[in-house]
## 1
Amino acid sequence: MRRNLTIISVLALLGVLYLSLSKTPASLKLEPNNPEVTALGKDIYDQQCAVCHGANLEGQPNWRQRLPSGRLPAPPHDETGHTWHHPDSLLVLMTKFGPGYAAGPDYESDMPAYENVLSEEEIIAALSYIKSRWPAQIQKKHDVINKRAEAAQTR
């Protein structure tokens, strides 16, 4: 039984890895300067994200301190948080498959995976809205992070 679970876990991990590698960074690129995309993204953010991450992207109080459950509160998505420290492709994949995508399968979070709730285009729209709210200097820093991630993937 344990061996079967290990095999299933390995196959699931390989599936997620395949999905992440089959997408190029360009296909997972945010569009913070596209008014149609960010308008859709605001609607999606308001419906799906604001309840935890705040109407103004402010996150939950004391977001760096673990809750009694051992999990972390929802972080802010504004410039005070760490969202902008991750490239577009990773943000999309973490939203789609849950935070454990980046942190590992044993990571526990209150954030659900959205792969069966939102399309990839809707995820990109919500994240584009978030990025559109960052100050220009943070957006520029994030663009540099994206360029580095793209360069690393092409090596």
Note: The domain at 25-154 is CATH 1.10.760.10 (Cytochrome Bc1 Complex; Chain D, domain 2).
## 2
Amino acid sequence: MRIASLKYRLQAPGFEMPEAVHLRQEAYDQVSARMLEEIADRIEKPSSAIVTGAQELQQLLNERLHEMDAEALRQLPKAQAESLLTLLHGIDALTTSLTKEVA
């Protein structure tokens, strides 16, 4: 899933998207990466709390995903928007599940 997401991020042939959508994906990816880094920190040091709080990061991730949904549906052809959003929602579901397991 991350490889497919990276293809969109790098704008590989067939994965191109308007700049506004690209910026939204970048913002989403940054929050998602922070969430994964904090999960990794929690795994390495089980006694430590996740620094920024899983709930706060999850809320921010949900906001970024919502922004991405709206922008993709506005800017991309329907099939491409649905493909990208299905991918990002799948990544989000796995990240959320992992966060709950680690917490």
Note: The mean pLDDT is 87.
## 3
Amino acid sequence: MWVKKFDKMHSKVKRVGYFLYEKNYLNNFFCLVCTDYGKLTKEQLEAARRVIRRKLKKKGVLVIRAFSYLSFTKKPLQVRMGKGKGRVEGFVCPTIPGKILFELRGVPAAKATEALRSGSQKLSLRTVIKSFKETYN
């Protein structure tokens, strides 16, 4: 569901069920997987990305699987009811349990877990680090 940059969303996104891992992955990669329902702002995702890249010192491949596309609006303080919907305040990424947020490839296991753990501290949801060592068909 892609929208233009400043369109206002008038309906909520349904977040039901668990996210199924996609298949056809290569060997040995590490993921930061969300375990809660919730929303992540684009600032949180960017802060986590910066910390992960800083820990890895630009080695390995970092894939960001979460994108903030859902806009939310807010009216200014001390404004009376009515007069339409408020201005677009920011963008969020809705998450469900099992959604992969970040992937790391080409990095040793100790370094990958340390980087993803420090990146997860910047997020407002509970996450877990998973490693996939075999190829899925």
Note: The two ends are 27 Å apart (CA to CA).
